[in-house]
UniProtKB/TrEMBL annotation:
Domain Acyl-CoA thioesterase-like N-terminal HotDog span(s) in chain numbering: 34-108
Alphabetized Gene3D superfamilies for the sequence: Acyl-CoA thioesterase, double hotdog domain
SUPFAM superfamilies listed in its UniProt record: Thioesterase/thiol ester dehydrase-isomerase
Full protein name: Thioesterase family protein
Annotated signal peptide: none
Length: 268
């Protein structure tokens, strides 16, 4: 269980209270503009799913966000749908105030950490060296998302901060935990939803709530920084998509995701 200011492991811990029933305490430090980050919520759900499964890794997660999660107590319900030798699946629900906040269909499996890829597509545009990137952490510190997650952004994708969006829906950054927690498979659930919305570089402004996000664990990452690459294809009628690839320090693709999200309309 967790409290504000705790490390990533404790902040995302779940406690089993019955068969398929867990309790958690959502850490306010993983909030952005008053809403708990969706990637953080997926970590909590993944920990419960793996605990209830004979397999070690959250291979695929398809998540629907129904309501804004609040800091504090929550329940996690794991409804097993299938358990097999190579994979298991469950519908996992985060509940607050007796209402479902997030649902995720999670498939678990056990990856071979020594497996080599048979095919790997070309890598995306590389993230510049750390010393050439921008740390957006407030100089006074605090208790927000930027104080939990260490991200160094490619300055070429951050023009929206100065009112000069690039016109291309792209974001790139390095990622790690500020508390020293070693990057693992659960960290990837947070990493795929850690970038600012790519729609900001198309002139969008304000909070862009995710409606649905699906992510896949492709390999267990080695310790060290993660390179996070975000792109988009379409912004229309108040909706936009975002695709993210995450690579570890060896350059291996370790996670990928796609989400659909809302952009506030002008005057709404």
């Amino acid at each position: 269980m967790s409290a504000s200011g705790s490390g990533f492991g404790e902040a995302t811990a779940v406690e089993r209270v019955d068969d398929g029933r867990y309790e958690a305490v959502l850490d306010p430090g993983y909030g952005i503009l008053g809403a708990i980050n969706g990637g953080y919520l997926m970590v909590v759900l993944a920990r419960a799913a793996v605990d209830a499964s004979p397999h070690a890794h959250p291979i695929s997660t398809a998540t629907n966000f129904h309501r804004v999660a609040k800091p504090g107590p929550a329940q996690v319900i794991v409804d097993s749908r299938k358990t097999g030798r190579t994979a298991a699946s469950a519908l996992v629900t985060l509940v607050q105030d007796d209402r479902p906040v997030v649902d995720a269909l999670i498939t678990t499996g056990t990856l071979d950490t020594a497996a080599e890829p048979i095919y790997a597509g070309p890598p995306p545009t590389p993230v510049p060296p750390l010393e050439e990137c921008t740390d957006l952490r407030p100089p006074t510190g605090g208790s927000g998302f930027a104080d939990r997650v260490d991200m160094r952004f490619d300055r070429r994708t951050m023009g929206w901060l100065d009112g000069t969006p690039s016109g291309s829906p792209e974001m790139r950054a390095w990622f790690r935990h500020r508390d020293g927690y070693e990057i693992d498979a659960f960290s990837l659930a947070l990493a795929v939803d850690a970038l600012p919305p790519v729609a900001l570089n198309l002139g969008a402004q304000g909070w862009a709530p995710t409606v649905e996000l699906t992510w896949h664990l492709r390999a267990v990452p080695v310790p060290g920084w993660l390179a996070v690459h975000g792109t988009g294809r379409l912004l229309a009628d108040g909706w936009f998509d975002e695709e993210v690839e995450v690579r570890d320090t060896t350059g291996r693709l370790v996670a990928q995701s796609r989400q659909i999200a809302r952009v506030p309309r002008t005057g709404s």
